[in-house]
Please model this.
Amino acid sequence: MNFVVVKATVIFLILALTVVEPKPVPDARKKRSNTEKLINSLASQDLVTNLPGQPAVDFRHYAGYVPVNETNGRALFYWFYEAATNPDLKPLVLWLNGGPGCSSVGYGATQEIGPFIVETDGHGLRFNNYSWNKEANMLFLESPVGVGFSYSNTTTDYDNLGDAFTANDAYAFLHKWFLKFPSYRTRTFYIAGESYAGKYVPELAELINDKNTDPSLHIDLKGVLLGNPETSDAEDWRGIVDYAWSHAVISDETHKVISENCDFDGDTWSNKICAQAVDEVLKQYKEIDIYSLYTSVCIGDTASSNDGSMQMPRIMGGYDPCLDDYSRKFYNRADVQKALHVSNGPQLKNWSICSTKIFHEWVDSKPSVLPIYKKLIAAGMRIWVYSGDTDGRVPVLSTRYSISALGLPITKAWTPWYHQKQVSGWFQEYKGLTFATFRGAGHAVPCFKPSNSLALFTSFLLGESLPSAR
Ligand SMILES: *[C@@H]1O[C@H](CO)[C@@H](O)[C@H](O)[C@H]1NC(C)=O
Ligand SMILES: *[C@@H]1O[C@H](CO)[C@@H](O)[C@H](O)[C@H]1NC(C)=O
Ligand SMILES: *[C@@H]1O[C@H](CO)[C@@H](O)[C@H](O)[C@H]1NC(C)=O
Ligand SMILES: *[C@@H]1O[C@H](CO)[C@@H](O)[C@H](O)[C@H]1NC(C)=O
Model:
């Protein structure tokens, strides 16, 4: 019940477009960094050399499977981009998208922060000048099994997917991945993610922190970065409702009914009056893009996609709501799956950006990860939380309610942060946590504000305050 909002939009975004034949561009592997000698043969099997439509770049990238459980035959798919310059000197960052059931390759890597963004014309990829691999070695993981290309050979595994399962497999993945990439085994490490990864990221960080008591398993995790993160169900719901009201999506009357009848800390949905009023919120959000209140929705449907009659989407603020569909076309191509070491024959994997089955059948979701925040803060980790302030799904109010519930002392009062001489948003620093907003950005912030997002990422890695002067 608590994920209904996502459900509607996921279905809405599964659309189709015509694919134009690709022109493969060979990967330009001109410069060889001095990590070369450290990359063993296991990694070299995963080197991506002929991704169709890929712009030429100077850094190497790798993709493939890492088995995480031999007994049941589970393997997770990753895509790893070395930092564009000096990869040896830069940290390693794992990026996770949410859902649950959505792909970090389809969203993070190819719509948000990777170096190659899926093109809207179906030809291939365009170079992203604001890729986060300018500052770090970026690892994208499709997690858990059933998401994107990741799979299990034991179908009953799919009945057990939840937060704990996801964290355990992601943890196993990291150690197996380090065997392929030993030069990263002791590297400074961060975990970043958005949306439902607001649960995954702290949960994995906690697991790493716990296991780190064994020196042989130690991973040098230094902090986490969270974007519009689902954090605490009660605070998240309060924020959704108050934000919808304060942004003129629902009426005063609906908001009043919810205020008077919904106990988000208790058994919320057993109250019929509350449930109906919340349904009214969702009904209004189905009309617009809940993830980006002020941009247009993706118009089109699968049936009409091949006859050219599809109404073209309007593209505003660098955000194309139809990108999900371009990704689906791209990742289901045989040549693409071959280049990414997913499939080598006639048996293609059926890639989709989100799995609605996983979303509906999720067996365990922590109601709140705020206790984990406290634990990570006590362990001295850097925690940064940012929020695009035009997102209605995990709105800035939800995040503020959650942070407020932590009751942390303020160390730097609310102030604007600047990028290219403009107010990019506001931020406030607490003992153990930094909170920043992005003015005019939706749920997937880097889609809307790529340059600003890279600036925030850079500050995060340096552990420096955001620029508070124009
Ligand atoms: C493999 O997965 C199964 C089911 O999730 C679990 O019971 C088993 O302990 C796992 N094996 C290893 C070696 O982790
Ligand atoms: C899953 O099964 C296929 C077919 O038997 C096999 O090739 C593959 O290695 C298995 N995957 C894992 C992770 O064991
Ligand atoms: C790429 O970004 C850099 C700053 O990171 C900027 O100096 C350069 O002009 C940008 N190039 C393009 C083609 O936008
Ligand atoms: C691929 O998966 C989608 C949804 O996950 C489904 O609708 C479609 O029928 C599948 N296609 C094939 C060829 O199995």
Summary: The pocket of 2-acetamido-2-deoxy-beta-D-glucopyranose (ligand 2) is lined by residues 67, 73-75, 153 (CB under 6 Å). The first strand starts at residue 61 and ends at 69. The first helix runs from residue 4 to 13. Residues 304 and 310 are 6 Å apart (CA to CA).
